[in-house]
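hey team, just a heads up i'm posting the complex here instead of the shared drive bc the drive is being weird again. everything in one block, sequence lines first with there labels, then the predicted structure for the whole assembly after. its three chains so it's a bit long, scroll down
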Amino acid sequence: MGNGTEHVNPTTETAKSAPAAASNGNPSFHDVSATISGIVERRDTPLWWWIAFGISATMTLGLLVQIAWLFWTGIGIWGNNIPVGWGFPIVNFVFWVGIGHAGTLISAILFLLRQRWRTSINRFAEAMTIFAVICAGLFPAIHVGRVWAIYWMFPLPNQMEMWPNFRSALMWDVFAVGTYFTASVLFWYTGLVPDWATLRDRARGWRQKVYGILALGWRGGNRQWKHYEMAYLLLAGVATPLVLSVHSVVSTDFATSMVFGWHSTIFPPYFVAGAIFSGFGMVTTLAILARALYPPVRDFMTLDTFDKMAKILMLTGMMVGYAYIIEFFTAWYSGNEYEQYVFINRAFGPYAVSYWIMFACNVIVPQLFWSKKLRRSLPVLFIASILVNVGMWFERFVIVISLHRDFLPSSWEMFKPTAFDIGFLAGSFGLFLTLFLLFLRFVPMVAMAEVKGVLPQADPHANGHHDRGGKEGGR
Amino acid sequence: MSATTSGRAAVETGAARVHGALARFSGPGELLRAAEEVRDAGYREFDCHSPFPIHGMDAAMGEKRSRLSWFVAACALFGFAGAVALQTWTSVDALPVVVAGKPFFSHVAFFPITFALTVLCSVVGAVVGLTFFIRQQYTHPVFHSDSFSASGSDDGFFISVLAVDGMFDREATAAFLREIGGTNVELLEET
Amino acid sequence: MQFDSQTHRFTDPGPFARIMLLAGIAGLALSAVGYFVDARQFFFSWLVAFTFWTTIGLGGLFITMVHHLTGATWSVVVRRIGEALMCALPWMALFAIPVLLGIGVLYEWTDPEAVAGSEMLSRKAGYLNIPFFVIRTVFYFAVWILLARLLAMKSLAQDAGWDDKRAHSLLTVSGPGMIAFALTVTFAAFDWLMSLQPLWYSTIYGLWFFGGAATSVMAMFAVTVSAIQAKGALTDVITPEHRHDIGKLMFAFLVFWGYMHLSQYLLIWYANLPEETAFYKMRWGAGWTAMSWILVAGGFVVPFILLMARGPKRGRSTLAAFAIWLLLMHWVDLYWNIMPALHEQTVILSWMDLTTMAGVGGFFLFFFWRWLTRHPLIPVTDPKLAASIRLVSG
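-- predicted structure starts here --
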């Protein structure tokens, strides 16, 4: 179909009407369906997509090759060694889990807070969450060494009568991340059901069948909507403590230990704030890209949306900064030399550069967003959001790497990442982007039903209608 | 189609079986008003279809609040009890191992997994329960309508009155739907 | 007590303020007697009462700033309650004086001999010393009072005529104000409460303190809404939807507070380091176990389960009942944190716990109520007012 650069609607109209309607700031219901579905329905995949997909798929293949080599050789191919027994794999794990937090935050918490602007980015962010958690789950799975025994992590009855140690923080991770992944997928899918129905009704042939199966026979009756809304509310209500618990549990991997610099009671909320921060950074980065590459979604991902995302970045960045300050102060206040040494060593020791990168990116950079002009400047926001994730990666690096100074100077050892360490990190980005590109291509990237629900004309009382005393409870 | 639940009580009228009537309304406000009319007229087996949920529709239709939350609460309780039982039994009875000097039954250390499994069960319960509560089925009389299939999930607002309703009458119901402002009134006929 | 629904003011504020003033005077007088009976008990009881009411005032400041920062609509109709609460903070500065006077009794680190005898304490002397402590407390109050006055003055000025510029200036105060608030509240918690056991430390302590303040301020909102509606004020303006929102926030902050407690406990329990577990060893020791369980069950588990339901959050009396219970639990929480420094072995409730609460609380509520009744109960010119009244939620 037609002109390659503009979005095309295979059914009939509106290649022109959507932007026209949006220019007066208020698209019609049909414009929403047509614009968003149009992206999925177009048959001519844009060239940039193929290029990006080619690169990311190649990186993913590289990752798979490296994983094969890892299984063949063993985890000695990484730089991990005593005393830094946890190197890049755990850094990457925490990094990706953290990124996975924004999706559920946007879907659940902002939903409960009735932040309507979330409708333009929630689908997007939820998808990102799922892919980030996939990347995250990969690292502990391949780090176990004997990957063929990985099912030992699950409480499966076996002939050895062995059971997992449920008192271990690492086992908590298995359950927390597993639950989080399941919940994210179900939440995402539930949100998608009405949109699959829209695609079903617009498609013909085998596509209609596929979408029809995915849509679960959705017919949009209020007898469905009322349960659907309740389910959504419940999912949001349950996902909110879940999202807080997941990174809290991840933080206990460190904080339940007796390692100075790791054992700090602020770790759970501090990790959660950091996770939301980096997740929002990633959502911002990807949303700006999607907006640049898919002009039709500009009507939905407006500058107001980005303005709010920048504010949340600033807020969570300052929460992280708060934790840095309080940790540093308490290290001094504790009067414990080991505790103090760890923090001084982080800031002024051999890895000081990573500490200051972390501090600059996470605390200084978000201060830009005091300015409304900068919040609404997409280039600034784009660069800042990338820096945020650079900073958050280094934050985890700083925490993990503080192992290089053990209690005894005789066991001090520097950590040097190997080429494989870098390769796995790059490969995980490849995997993430591959999945994300597939999502952009095949799934409606904006929640159509939700966007319609917050349009001004969706308010049934918009024309001054008043209920005639509904007698609640018909049957 | 005759095997579906909706086909059961369909009215035999000559060649085609009428499963109900469908009318289109121009917007959410109109749909809400019409729902009140249909409710007050005494219909029970009707539904208001819209591309997004409409606030106040439950009251307008005379619907109760969803009871899904009770189902989910039961699932959560199951998850909680199951997690406590699993961890206690494995750690205390099945394989008691001293690790880090922690007691076999460590309620603090069991907390994260108990929480996770409670959430897991409630989430799965919410979604599985949803498919039951919404009476998930791939075939439904409304899909017989071309205009519903074309715009029901896009920008169309419809009321369907099913033939299983005791008050349903193919002439009177259609006239009634027209009277309350419905356009494109049609009978949902098997074709 | 009469309410004029045109001006949204009480034409006759009723006897509540007078009763509170009398309670305050009586409480202070009796507490003063208590000082001569048992000075140590007096100062500790005072510290509990002082932190209890100060946290509620701080919560008011927090909620007001959040309201401006988020540009929330629903809270417009109840904004004045938060403002009235924060405007009682200047008076709390006055009540900080006994804490400063009792510093030698309350805090072990003020004893030069104890410091000289403990290497750890002498390492902390750069922070834990009397002049710096006093300066800090004065500074905290200076910041809070400045913020509260600025926000309240500007908000009241809006009543004469809405000015968008002024509305924006409320936002510009609240942004940096929130940073100042976060840091001052944290260090106030470290100073006033954490340093009671000077060897113990917990990085999360400031967040725990804030969590208690935020929960109890929402409880205070609920109680106030219930009280003024019982007097026939704002019955059409504040709807079950608003109560639902207050209840939801109260619930959310309750969970936040419980999460802070759990994080602290779980990590200290797990690592099992002697210098940290001392805090819990005392509180789970024989005489304190019962109170610890009350805090766990009554402060969190039971209200958490019951408040999950929708009904209790929407009903006027049910919400108020939960709110009063949570306020009581806030007191238990503070008592549980403070008092083991005095009564290490077991809980010994004193009549001074009651008189100091009445003394400080009487004045706090007097000033709170006086502010609330002197000004329109809702920001009448706020352009979001109509939307706030019309609020519909799930």
